[in-house]
Amino acid sequence: MEVYPPGDKYADRRRRRDCIGSWQARYRDPSGKQRAKNFPIADGGKRAAEAFLDDVRGRVRRREWGDPKRGEITMDQWWELWWEAQPDRAVTTRNRKLSNWTVHVQPKWGRWRLCDLEHIELQAWLTREVKGYHTRKKVAELLNGMLRAAVKDGRRIPFNPAADLEVGDAPGKHPDDLRPPSWEQCALIIDELPRYYQPFVAFLQHTGMRWGEATALRWENVDLEGQHLKVKEVLSEDRGRLFRKAAPKTVAGFRTVPLLPPAADAVRTMVERWRPSEKVTPIGDDPYQLHAEELVFRGPQGGVLTRHNFRRVWLPAIDSAGLAREVVNPETGRTEWWPRVHDLRHVFATRLKDMGIPEKDAQAILGHERGSKVTWLYQHAPEDVADRVRAKLAPETLGVRTLRAVAG
Prior knowledge:
This protein is mainly α. Among the domains are: 23-65; 71-152, DNA polymerase, domain 1, CATH 1.10.150; 181-339, hpI Integrase, Chain A (Orthogonal Bundle), CATH 1.10.443.10. The protein is built from 15 helices and 9 strands. It has helices spanning 45-61, 75-84, 91-109, 119-129, 133-152, 175-178, 183-192, 198-207, 211-215, 261-274, 307-320, 343-354, 359-366, 372-378, 382-397; strands at 23-28, 34-39, 222-223, 228-231, 234-238, 241-245, 255-258, 325-328, 335-338. It has a 3-stranded antiparallel beta sheet with strand order 3-4-7. Strand 1 and strand 2 (34-39) form a beta hairpin. The radius of gyration is 33 Å and the shape is elongated.
């Protein structure tokens, strides 16, 4: 018998009909490249190889196949690719994501391979080690976005293990801590403020504008004759630095706000003090150029009015007015003070409700995308509900005898 190939030293070895070694499943990927995977006898051998081939050929036909080796890169490596491809976002949004990666995700998962991440391990870490509801929520969003992109990018991983991470329920606050001060209580606070700041607080009370919208208000956007103003930009803060944003919080933030007489008087007072420029400098490439000379409301020295400096006069004022109350944040455990400056916005919203302004109109004036927040936060005080229930039930209890406890 001829030896084939010639000189093969194994040619005289008898062929075995029973395979006792590994089985190799060979297939071609969508590009036509041949690939293979070995299956030892201990892992099922031939049956496992055949089942694998059936599955992988089906996924290739359905265009669901992904190269397993592409999922062997680490989270650190994937972050570099993913982060570079992200579209431009607001400065605060990008920095928040970067902070969540640097502080929370990278120290724990940076050296892990994409293909090794499991849902239950991610969930356990999120629940036990990431503190605070809102932090967990943002970290889960970041992980979900990264791993969802890994599935789309040539199916580096077959599924997203962070798709259904649970962050728990948001901590609740007592209704008393959510309800804004009354109109009369605001008057007490204003009386206790230094005279310079009184117009600004009256303006917030009578317009319902957010802090960043009011401090960014430029003289060009105020129409005293027409008794309204335009909200066109805001001042925001990132890592202690203020910058201009060409857009308010939401698209609904671009709006026209009516100028009630107290708010108009506040504007006139500050305009007479500072004589702001009537032009609006474009934001340009450097949003940190604030151009305070165009602003209506400024600090006592003529610079931009900041939260930090205003807090120094706000806390003594609410304390002197007898209204200051310590409130422990149920999520962070930190002590806060009621009422907050932001509560002046809620005061105005409550005023709109009390005067019978339709919800859609209140929504437009306040710059809310949806009316639900207006409805539930501002228009459903616990005392109002209790009064309505009492009014309904009180007539039914008339003439009904009640039991009295007596000492035996």
